Amino acid sequence: MKNKRLIAVLAAIVVIIAGTLAYQSVSRGSKNQGTKTVKVGVLQYVTHEALDEIYRGIKDGLKKEGYSGDKIKIEFLNAEGDQSKVQTMSQTLVSHKNQLLIGIATPAAQGLASATKDIPIVMGAVTDPVGAKLVKDLKNPGGNITGVSDKTPIADQIDLIKELTPDVKTVGLLYSSSEDNSKSQVEEFKKLAEKKGYKVETYAVPSTNEIATTMNVLLSKVDAVWTPLDNTIASAFPTVVAAAKDANKPIYPSVDTMVSEGGLASVVVDQYDLGVATGKMAAKILKGEKAGDIPVQVFDEGTPVINKTVAQELGVTIPADLAKKAKSVN
Question: Which Pfam families does the annotation name (predicted)?
């Protein structure tokens, strides 16, 4: 009888100890889960205001979804427009075992896509994801890549050229020959502008070194200059502005920051908002969704932006209706 009681007491003690250990294990696991730090690698193609705004938005988008402070560690690399660095930096971010990768601009996203087929990748501001061979379908990307596309509202930009500068007959398109993103935009602009009766001249540059001489040739043959969402042109935009100013001819860029820097006007998608959307999409994946199951989000509705100082310098009169709806940057 005494042995049975002893066994019962020992069994009860074992149950209590096991329960205590289990509770402590769950408690520790819960605590660790609450303080778990996720690792995110970000590769930006080049430094300029538009891409910097996207990165700022990405961080805020992640923060809005609960990823800030010790909840996240971001490894940020900038290739500064060097394609060889894009490749080595992409491999670095993969080797550092980041759980998710974000590519800001098409070359950065392409570099990351070449470096891994396993780690999820979010594109930040890629105008033509299908043309850049990053996804096969916008609605069903598949694979390990999804993201945000900044579809340039080209038709609206052409209408703006007509409204602001009705005397323009020939438009020169300045873009980088090395960016797939830019080629597709130039093709679309040329097709739509020619339908509207414009003569279109295209000028591709292999690098920033050729921009000054190309602008001299271009400006002798056109009435206005249009630039797509192009990282090479954006990084050397002051050179474009200086040449156009000397020739007293307007520039119509595709980014609001470039209007501020000396462009006349544009219809643009907000770069910061693009970044926020990119950050929120990254958070969905960190919370368990598969990148390939998330449709690419397309931003294609723009807002008119006008540089009033440049308009005054060029003698351009801003129609009253346009002035009411447009955002002024200077």
Answer: ABC_sub_bind (PF04392)
